[in-house]
Amino acid sequence: MLMEADGEAKLLAGGQTLLPVMAFRLAAPAILIDLSGVQELKGISIDDTGVRIGAMTTWRDIEDDQRLRTAAPLVSAAIEHIAHYQIRNRGTIGGSLSHADPAAEMPGVVVACDACLEIVGSNGMRSVPANEFFLGPLTTCLSADEVLTAVRFPPWPATRLWAFEEFAQRRGDFAYAGIALFHETGATGLVENAHIGLIGATSVPRRLGVAEAALNGRRLDGETIAAAAQLASSEADAEDDIHASAAYRKALVGTLLERALKAAAERAEAL
Amino acid sequence: MKVTPAVNTFVGRPVERVEDLRYLRGKGQYLDDLQKEGQWCGAVLRSSVAHGRLVNIDTKAALDIPGVHAVITAADLPSVIPTIPFRRPNPTIAPYAQPVIAVDKVRYVGEPIAFVLADSAEIAEDALQFISVEIDTLDPIVDWRASENGATLLFDSTQTNIASVFEARSGDAAEAFRAAPYVRRERFSVQRHTAMPMETRGLLAEWDEATSHLTVWGAAKLPFFNRRAMAGMMGLQETAVDYLELDVGGGFGARGEFYPEDFLVAFSAKHFKRPVKWVEDRREHFLAIAHAREMEAELEIACDLDGSILGMRGTINVDIGAYVRPNGMTPVRNVTQFIAGPYRIANLAFDGRALVSNKTPAGTYRGPGRFEGCFFCERMIDLAAKDLNLDGVDMRRRNLLTQADMPYALATVSPNDGFAETACDSGDYRTTFDQCLNEFGWQEKSPLNGQCIDGLYHGIAIGNFIEGGAAGPRESAKIELERDGSVSVYVGSSGVGQGVETIMSQIAADALEISLDRIRLFHGSTSNLKEGFGSYGSRGTVMGGSAVLVAAKEFLAAFQDAAAERLRVPSDQVTVEGGVARTRDGRSVPLIEIAALELISREATYHGSKQTYTFGAAAVHVSVDPKTGRVNILDYVTVDDVGRVINPLTLHGQVVGAAVQGFGGVFSEHLQYDSSGQLLVGSLADYMIPISTDYPHIRAISLEQYPSPNNPLGAKGAGEGGIIPVGGVVVNAIASALRSFGVEPRSLPLTPPHIWQLIQETKS
Question: Is the per-residue pLDDT at B1 higher than 50?
Answer without folding.
Answer: no
